[in-house]
Amino acid sequence: MTKIGKIITILLWVLLIVSSVLVISLMVNISENDADATMGSWINSNLVWTYILVVVGAGIAIFGGLIQMFTDKQAAKGGIMAFVFLGAVALVSYLFASAEIPQFVGVDKFINNGTLNVKVAKLVDAGLIATYILLGLAILSIALSSVTRLFK
User: Fold this and answer.
1) Residue 134 confidence (pLDDT) above 70
2) Is 0.90 topped by the overall pTM?
3) What is the DSSP letter of 102?
């Protein structure tokens, strides 16, 4: 095993131990009293640790992807095509999105406090349409790969 491999293994074990200690401490301090400051403190500590792990993990993934993209021209072309595709999906979704505010029980509360307006309604609708497009493409690709496998 290389020196970097050993360092990564040790780092992963440290992360696992810290995570385990935090979860066990949270479980030990759970109580029925919602106002218990100790339990709230452990919940907050676990949430902060989770945020740290997510940010560091995302940063490492992005950094590794950028290094791969700059060192491999074929990977760069594939990455740029993926961004263009996602941009096209976002653009189509936004163009088809409706700015109409949905009517449901309690909508007046959200309109009055400003959390729901025409812009937010359009962005939410665009997000839903993008999700439907990507779901449809995923199902279509699964079906097509199965059909092409039958003919091979």
Assistant:
1) yes
2) no
3) P
